[in-house]
Amino acid sequence: MTIPAILAAAEIEFAANGFAAARTESIAARANVVKGLIFHYFKSKEGLYEAVLVQAYQPVSEALDESLDQNLSATDALLTFVERLLATWTEHPLSPVIFILESIQGGGEHVRKLGMPSLYSQVEVLLKNGIASGEFRQMDPGHGAINIIGLCGFYFCAANNISHIPGRSRNSLSKQSLARHTAEVIAFVKKATAPTR
């Protein structure tokens, strides 16, 4: 139980402060362990951070693999991926925040160092397949991939701000709010990629 507790505590700390400002003392206190255990298991703060990134990316990668491995139409593959990505981030709402902070504060260096495949490039392949088959409209698939992932993930990064919008739920990460977000994103992606008549 110690390693999962440390990783869970670290996810919260890194999502709140990014890598540079995160404090191992805070992680240890939140995980209810002595600070030395963090270094015993992960060797350094950077090692712990990279373990959190890997843990955050794994279910996203699996969601994409499942979409690509099935014998689905391009539309179904894309919508299946979007649905599974949102399910993953609904279960782990801090993951998109950590990756945004990694990009903003760290320039994506840890992601590159870990050799994580580009999620954008992989979604671009789904879009290229749909354009080639005529299921999707003509578009720049690279920008399309960026827009789709942004549409899925920005909500989690802005959850605190969204909860202050008049008329919105005070808990933007409630099950009901996240179910609405998922339904709206899927509808938006389906309409945005449909061929023009």
Outline the secondary-structure elements.
Elements: H1 2-21, H2 24-31, H3 35-42, H4 45-69, H5 74-91, H6 95-106, H7 109-114, H8 119-133, H9 141-157, H10 159-162, H11 175-193
Helix pairs in contact: 1-2, 1-4, 1-6, 3-4, 4-5, 4-8, 5-8, 5-9, 5-11, 8-9, 9-11
Structural account:
This protein is mainly α and 197 residues long. The chain contains 11 helices and no strands. α5 runs antiparallel to α8 and α5 (74-91) packs parallel to α9. The N and C termini lie far apart (56 Å). The model has no long low-confidence stretch (mean pLDDT 93). Residues 23-42 bind DNA. Keywords: DNA-binding. InterPro entries: Homeodomain-like_sf (IPR009057), HTH-type_TetR-like_transc_reg (IPR050109), HTH_TetR (IPR001647), NicS_C (IPR041474), Tet_transcr_reg_TetR-rel_C_sf (IPR036271). This is TetR/AcrR family transcriptional regulator.
Termini separation: 56 Å
How would you describe the shape?
globular
- Tally of helical segments: 11
Count of domain modules: 1
Q: Residue share in helices? A: over 70%
Largest sheet: none
Number of strands: 0
Q: Report strand %.
A: under 5%
CATH class: Mainly Alpha
Rg calculated over all Cα atoms: 18 Å
Annotated CATH topology = Tetracycline Repressor, domain 2
State mean pLDDT (0 to 100 scale).
93
Order of helical and strand elements: HHHHHHHHHHH
CATH superfamily: Tetracycline Repressor, domain 2
List the uncertain runs: none
Class of secondary structure makeup: mainly alpha
- Identify the CATH architecture: Orthogonal Bundle
Domain HTH tetR-type: 1-60
Protein name: TetR/AcrR family transcriptional regulator
GO molecular function: DNA binding
DNA-binding region: 23-42
